[in-house]
């Protein structure tokens, strides 16, 4: 059963990025689940179909799904395919980090920054 | 079925098909009204569809003319022409779907909406399943009831009055016994396997951006099912016609001259009516299969005015 409408949800990968493509996929699906845009029971596209849409090897998408399964974000079932299992159990500091991230987005949006600029700023902070 | 390709229904279907095709081309959404990627995808799909029909027709004509199944029996190749059409048609579409343009560029996007079987193609899918089941049933029934030799049906032995002995059995053919049924069943299996492969490919091929995606994918699936269902329906109808005509011939009975008397022997009015109805049903099935080829695939409509809201934004990459 699909609990949310995934029609407007889009995954985007940059094949020239130093971040491996499977990692980009894993991060984005994890973010969607954390933001409750994907909820428990939502079906993800078959690895073959998603790989075709993104022009990737099936193994790349399969690896992303495998990593997501290993962290408990999704579950693979023989009959229904890959479905969202639920958000990863939050750590004690999760609330603080989520609030800080929300503040980053709020300040960035107020300054007219794009999502890409915000992510770049976050990446720069991670490198410090 | 030998004269299938010179028969009036086929010529009529070709004529109507050309007219319908010209009408569809004239009323199609113009290329300049479409996103270039969508226009290219539509051209790829319709091109593959047209090529599949031409290749299928060429294969059917070639099988009918060259008689590659001559060693299996007279008329077997002609009986297999609809299946040759369906197999080649489906095979070409499978290749076409496999060769669908792949996404290019450094940044690529994909919807998270899972693929589903298009609702628009469900009716044709039911038709294909029904045709396959009917074909298997007719072939099995013909196989089970045919006379030794596998290409005719035998009537009962009838006792003559006044101790004059017995006559029969009378034999009529062609009849879908094993000589025709086995190749037909094998050909049906090949077509169904190709349909499964082509559908798997069509449902997993790269998406087209925007709302045209659903229409173009439904059109691809529709084309695969339409050609295969048409071939199986024509084959089913052909087997029904020849089988029922043979049965009707048996059911008519015969006149036997004994000394100075002429006796009517055999004859089964109920079977005669049933066989006539079956032959009519078979003829109708052939026409339905030919007409199915004229059923247009789902088509793109002019794009509605652009909504005022922003497009859905991609998900930013956030470390877990």
From TrEMBL, chain A:
GO molecular function, one term: DNA-binding transcription factor activity
InterPro entries: Tscrpt_reg_HTH_GntR, WH-like_DNA-bd_sf, WH_DNA-bd_sf
Organism superkingdom: Bacteria
Domain annotation HTH gntR-type: ranges: 19-87
Gene3D superfamilies for this protein: Winged helix-like DNA-binding domain superfamily/Winged helix DNA-binding domain
Keywords, ordered alphabetically: DNA-binding, Transcription, Transcription regulation
Transmembrane intervals: none
Name of the protein this chain belongs to: GntR family transcriptional regulator
Biological source species: Klenkia brasiliensis
UniProtKB/TrEMBL annotation, chain B:
Keyword Transmembrane helix belongs to the record: yes
Transmembrane portions of the chain: 6-26, 47-66, 72-95, 124-144, 180-203, 224-250, 270-295
Keyword annotations of the record: Membrane, Transmembrane, Transmembrane helix
Source taxon at top rank: Bacteria
The protein, known as: Uncharacterized protein
